[in-house]
Amino acid sequence: MSTLFTAEGIQVDLINTTLSDLAGRFAFNGLPLGLYRLDVSGENVEAQSFDITIDSKQVMFDVVVDIVPSILINTENVVFNGENLRVSWDVAGLDQNDELNVKLVHASGQLNLATELAAQAGQIIWPVDIAEQTVTVVVELANDETVNASAQVVVIQKNRAPVVNIAIPDQEAQSGLAYSFTFDAQTFTDADEGDELTYSATLEDGTELPSWLSFEADTRTFSGTPGDAHIGMVTIAVSVTDGEISQPVTEQFSINVVAAPVVEKPVEDSSDNDNDNDSGSLGWFSLILIVFAFTRRLVNR
């Protein structure tokens, strides 16, 4: 940072000082004796004038330079949600005990991040936890908000993986009967609006599903007809991805294939057969008696 000093249109160098010293020492060489006005101006320096009397060929003259209070802010242009935002600053013309407010201005208001003393350099680290948007980071003098610096930062939402929201219940299928099961659409959820979930299914060890079982990813439906050779329990792994995560999220459930119940032929009741035989015998006996009685009547005539 450079500051230009002039005396009656003659350039004079600033030596042995910096702006933070709030003072300047000027050397005048070879000027004629007389009265001069020293005009001081420059970046972050309040314009000032000093009357100087030159009464020798070489003069060393000290002046106190008032520096305009200022803040220079440094921060990233882009930050991911869930990561840290680093904000640092430099100040000039401020007392070391002056307080600075560091705040974040966003769509729904503002968030005060910190209050710091106006040291020569400061820094805060803030964990970002706001939705995707463009925000403004402001560092301002606590007792004079007109002394401030600001910078815009774009907050980008980092992709969030799907999560298991509802457990898939265990199932039972019967040998020889068609089986179908559709798991709930809310089994997996994704906090990132617009993410499209893609499903797949395998056995728990990553191998293919049994030959009798198929999976339709679009409808989240398992279907098939197991045979007697498939009786037993299998564990199914359902995986989901949003197209961005490196490892799918998985939920497991089991299908227990049971044998079809055996239907046995009912045993006939022997007592019913005896009754039926008795009934038949009595019927023939009665018929014989009737015939005998009819024949005897004819003979007696």
Plain-language structure description:
By secondary structure, the protein is mainly beta. The chain folds into 3 domains: 5-64; 70-156, Sandwich (Immunoglobulin-like); 163-258, Immunoglobulin-like (Sandwich), CATH 2.60.40. 10% of the residues lie in helices and 50% in strands. The strands form 7 sheets. The protein has a 5-stranded mixed beta sheet, with no helix packed on it. It has a 4-stranded antiparallel beta sheet with strand order 2-1-5-6, with no helix packed on it. The longest helix is centred in the C-terminal third of the chain and has 31 residues, at 270-300. It is rod-shaped, with a radius of gyration of 49 Å. The protein starts with a strand and ends with a helix. The model is unreliable at 1-11 and 13-23 (pLDDT under 50).
How large is the count of helical segments?
1
Q: Strand order, biggest sheet?
A: 9-15-14-11-12
Name of the CATH class of the largest domain: Mainly Beta
What overall form do the CA principal axes indicate?
A: rod-shaped
- Kindly give the count of domains: 3
Number of β-strand runs: 24
Strand content: over 45%
CATH superfamily of the largest domain: Immunoglobulins
Mean pLDDT: 79
Question: Could you tell me how far the N terminus lies from the C terminus, measured between alpha carbons in angstroms?
Answer: 162 Å
- State the secondary-structure class: mainly beta
Which CATH architecture of the largest domain is right?
Answer: Sandwich
Helix-strand sequence: EEEEEEEEEEEEEEEEEEEEEEEEH
- Main pleated-sheet profile: 5 strands, mixed
Taking pLDDT < 50 over at least 5 consecutive residues as the criterion, the unreliable ranges are 1-11, 13-23
So what's the oligomer here?
single chain
Radius of gyration: 49 Å
